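Following the same procedure, backbone shapes were mapped to integers, yielding the entry below.
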Amino acid sequence: MTANLLNTLDLDRELSDQSPQEIIAYALEQFDNIAISFSGAEDVVLIDMAHRINPEKVQVFSLDTGRLHAETYRFIEKVREHYGIQIDVVFPDAYAVNNMVREKGLFSFYRDGHKECCSIRKIGPLRRKLLTVDAWITGQRRDQSPGTRTAIPVIQDDKAFARPDDTLTKFNPLANWSSNQVWEYIRSNNVPYNELHDRGYISIGCEPCTRATGPGQHEREGRWWWEEATMKECGLHSVNTQK
């Protein structure tokens, strides 16, 4: 980090009126060790913006759960080649995955809920990665999930993943954007995207837990469709469901 941050509540009020590019520029200026979390359309928009602002400082990571669509793997490689960047692909602990699958099978989440599987395949690897950075940038938008993301700030203290006795700052530059704005940016700037979007998939996660959505359905209805609609979070953004 190159400068002391003001109170994050004050900063959030100040940054909320700024464009995503201005928020990203501020984040890159304030932190030397900062990474973009990459999985979907919003995240590659962030990569594109950051690459235009300071290509030498773009650090990107992606979580490979071992259950992604083949199209998603091709998407990751497409982004790596398009921007000429390294993408740190982070994997879950093989021993933990092996134990869960041996004891409960490959599809226990349909019966027991997705929390345990996501904890092993996503949260563990994310926690391990975030222990190595001072700040991270995500593609969360307030209109993505009516039950969990309507109040996300532009900047926040991420107490869920911070190192002991240290701080971790989280930026959500697209918090105020809509899905339409994301796709307008993608089309206007020739930004790569996951080919599954052309087949009705809007919010894309692991293959067994993602399906296409129909006309009039909210984008998160395609994720964990067998569970409560207001709790569609895997834990990567656990602060969203805290009361």
Q: What stands out?
A: Confidence is low (pLDDT under 50) at residues 237-243. The CA atoms of residues 142 and 149 lie 5 Å apart.
